[in-house]
Design goal:
The protein is built from six helices and 15 strands. By secondary structure, it is of the alpha+beta class. The strands form four sheets. The chain has a six-stranded antiparallel β-sheet. Strands 5-6-4-9 form a four-stranded antiparallel β-sheet, covered by helices on one side. The chain has a three-stranded antiparallel β-sheet with strand order 1-3-2. A hairpin with a 2-residue loop joins strand 11 and strand 12. It starts with a helix and ends with a strand.
Length: 245
């Protein structure tokens, strides 16, 4: 929470800077910081905040705070495709991120890592793209090369569904089931400011989840309430949970 308060103060400083004509390009922001910036920027009617993540439907976005219009190139985002021998190696999201972090790169310089039918891609800040290109030679045990991508790749959102029976549609109950946590741990995450419903920070464990609500938990992932069924013999609610993969 202290980190987010410091971020909030920094954003107010940058928004005030824009009133004097200053332009600020931010590194990739996670959901919590995006919510703060969007809320704070509403107080500055003459200032524009633009967002882009290098992919269609990107989750992690860079932001530009500016009193002027900007171009897509101003975001300074590079997208790489990872080239490797797919016959012998299996590369996943975690192994890509781990290999990038092993280079000593801060997470805020790396955007989304996208795996789809055409390959594996990741976005990064242009400022460190040459360093990554010259130094990222392995992901896990796989030798790799990197290819610059000019076209915009779509981040296709996929879900894995499971059916469960909940005692209620309370937020803590939902999180406990969706992420295989104890009810007390779910409560702890909520009151610590790590849980969002449809991109809105929620601190109340008893908040009621509605159909199609998407709940995100920092460090755990996202899950949507896809269906609500009837009651079991023990009066538990049948639900379908759709967890992002």
């Amino acid at each position: 929470m202290e980190e987010l308060e410091l971020f909030k103060k920094r954003m107010n400083s940058l928004l005030n800077k824009a009133l004097d004509g200053g332009v600020s390009v931010l590194n990739f922001l996670d959901e919590a910081k995006l919510v703060i910036l969007k809320n704070e920027s509403k107080k500055f009617k003459d200032i524009n905040v633009f967002y882009y993540g290098g992919f269609k439907n990107a989750d992690s976005l860079r932001a530009i705070i500016s009193p002027y219009d900007i171009e897509k190139e101003d975001f300074k985002i590079i997208v790489f495709k990872i080239i490797y021998n797919e016959k012998y190696y299996n590369i996943n999201h975690r192994s890509v991120l781990g290999s990038l972090m092993a280079l000593g790169i801060k997470r805020e310089f790396i955007g989304d890592i996208v795996l789809n039918d055409t390959g594996i891609y990741f976005a990064c800040a242009k400022e460190i793209s040459d360093f990554i290109y010259n130094n990222l030679k392995k992901v896990g045990s796989a030798s790799i090369t990197l290819k610059y991508i000019n076209e915009e790749i779509e981040n296709v959102i996929k879900y894995k569904e499971k059916i469960d029976f909940l005692s209620s549609l309370r937020l803590d109950c939902f999180i406990s089931s969706a992420f295989d946590l104890s009810r007390s741990k779910a409560n702890e995450l909520i009151v610590s400011g790590l849980v969002y419903i449809n991109h809105v920070l929620i601190l109340n464990p008893s908040e009621t989840i509605k159909l199609e609500d998407e709940i995100s938990v920092r460090g755990k992932g996202r899950c949507k309430l896809a269906k609500i069924g009837g009651l079991s013999k023990s009066n538990r609610i049948a639900v379908t949970l759709a967890k992002r993969i």
